[in-house]
């Protein structure tokens, strides 16, 4: 699957010319770094990881572990799962 994605990205980058290619979904720091280094994407986007990691940028920058968001709390009607995740304590 990953090889098929890389092949698609390589083809897409060639076809897009100067248009920036942004990829989101199942993103990890390692995956983002690899895709950027291989020039297969121009920007790696992180969506769901921001929910469980209000300090996501610092976590990625410092190599700190990511908290997995509680998907069962999404759209639950209250603040649980949205604003109650603690920042990483080194």
From TrEMBL:
Stored InterPro entries: Aldolase_TIM, Oye-like
GO molecular function: FMN binding; oxidoreductase activity
GO cellular component, one term: cytosol
Protein name, per record: Alkene reductase
